[in-house]
Amino acid sequence: MSSTETALVLGGGVGGLVSAVELRKRLPAADRVVLVDRRQRYLFDPSLLWLMTGLRTPEKITRPLARLRLKGIEVVSGEIEHIDADARRVSVDGQELVGENVIVSLGAEYAPETVPGLAAAGHNFYSLPGAEGLRDALRGFGGGRLVVLTATPAYKCPAAPYEAAMLLEYHCRKRKIRDDVQIDLYAAEPGPMGVAGPEVSAGVRGMVEARQIGYHPEHQVERVDHAAGRIFFTNGAWADFDLLAYVPPHRAPEVVRESGLADETGWIPVDRHSLETGRPHVYAIGDVTTIPLRLGKPLPKAGVFAHAEALVVATNIARSITGKGRPASFEGRGQCFVETGDGKAAMARGDFYAEPVPQLKLHRAGRRWHAAKILFERNWLRKWF
Ligand SMILES: Cc1cc2nc3c(=O)[nH]c(=O)nc-3n(C[C@H](O)[C@H](O)[C@H](O)COP(=O)(O)OP(=O)(O)OC[C@H]3O[C@@H](n4cnc5c(N)ncnc54)[C@H](O)[C@@H]3O)c2cc1C
User: Fold this and answer.
1) Which protein residue's CA is at the shortest distance from atom 5 of ligand 1?
2) Going by CA atoms, what residue is nearest to atom 20 of ligand 1?
3) Cα separation of 264 and 42, whole Å?
4) Residue 300: how many CB atoms within 10 A of its CB?
5) Structural domain of residue 233, as residue ranges?
6) Each residue of 48-60: b (16+ CB within 10 Å) or e?
7) Is there a domain that residue 340 lies in?
């Protein structure tokens, strides 16, 4: 082992950002913290829902990753093309980087092309260009059938499509076109936020339906006919649309799928408390992981977990190098704002590791949770950049 250690952080999203900043704070100055991402700018994903309804601009919700250099983090911009987990070595645009510790936080990649016709017909509001496209299309939308679609039952931030439908409904009311717009949410899953339990699921469904949004669970999209404006489902049903906003299928990034770190689920299995991958000194956190829960479904993919997992891994790596601090453990607690429109939000929070099923409570929608979400956005971007 060299006297100077290098921590290699793969990905500059939620998990990578938090791990790199925390490691930098905790490691001796001589040790290197290297963060690699293909993106130049960090994007605060939750605010895409406000961007699509014109309440945010891209400048307001993104920050240059290069700014992390001011904190002493080495930022490498480029495509990670290969991960050798045993050698803890990665190749970035042909350049080799090696670390004594490696944190994989490469998130999920979108695969809209796996559903014929989907990408051409609709707006992927889970991406910045897609949310901008939806915002622009809404400006010219004076009425008709507006459909929100989840293309698969599992996707990151299980609240987001439900929030999107309610924010779009509010947006139509504010523009005084609500009477001319029919809004439907077609979901591949059996109900909203299923892992959070029946109380939360029923509560969110109730909020959606109270806004006269048609809710159609267990509709798995098969293909979309762009020219006809029609979605075909595997159960034989179909739905017509004038404007389509969708959540795309997700999968682990190709470089992860080819690294040997992923299992048959396609994601990286990790120890549920330490986030160790089983390869010495290689950790995985956030959306790229799979953590099975007793109820048979995995821990949902969400920034709140990527954040907490990053703190645990950074603490434990720093402790292994400096001998200082207490060991940390990820305990599966999380929370999620649920924007409902009208300047209000609800809040679901609790313990996802509770046995035999997660224990969560849904706090009623009100102005204070919405205000808390605005504050969270501001503080988050201020704290990490
Ligand atoms: C619309 C929307 C709303 C959301 N709202 C919430 C919310 O309210 N609460 C919540 O907890 N979560 C929310 N989320 C989910 C949250 O954003 C993610 O769970 C979180 O970003 C996961 O962090 P991560 O570090 O695992 O991955 P990411 O943040 O996705 O970061 C992965 C990084 O890896 C980089 N990368 C991938 N492959 C490569 C490669 N080969 N080479 C170089 N770089 C690569 C990517 O560019 C990216 O920057 C929301 C998501 C969306 C889309």
Assistant:
1) 46
2) 303
3) 30
4) 24
5) 111-249
6) bbbbbbeebeeee
7) no
By alpha-carbon position, which residue is closest to atom 25 of ligand 1?
A: 15
Instruction: Identify whether residues 276 and 221 lie together within a single domain.
Output: no
- Say how many Å lie between the CA of residue 248 and the centre of ligand 1: 14
Same domain for 214 and 178? yes
Q: Please give all residues whose beta carbon lies within 6 A of any atom in ligand 1, as ranges.
A: 11-16, 36-39, 45-46, 48-49, 79-80, 105-107, 126, 156-157, 160, 253, 255, 286-288, 301-304, 306, 336-337
The count of domains in the chain is 2
> Looking at ligand 1, which atom is closest to the CA of residue 78?
43
For the CA of 310, the nearest atom of ligand 1: 25
In a domain, 357, yes or no: no
| For ligand 1, atom 8: residue with the closest CA | 46
Do 151 and 36 lie in a common domain? Answer: no
What CATH code is carried by the domain that includes residue 14?
Answer: 3.50.50.60
Mean per-residue pLDDT pooled into runs of 10, the chain (385 residues) = 85 98 97 98 98 98 98 98 98 97 98 98 98 98 98 98 98 98 98 95 98 98 98 98 98 98 97 98 98 95 98 98 96 97 97 95 97 98 96
pTM above 0.90, yes or no: yes
| Ligand 1 center to 287 CA (angstroms) | 7
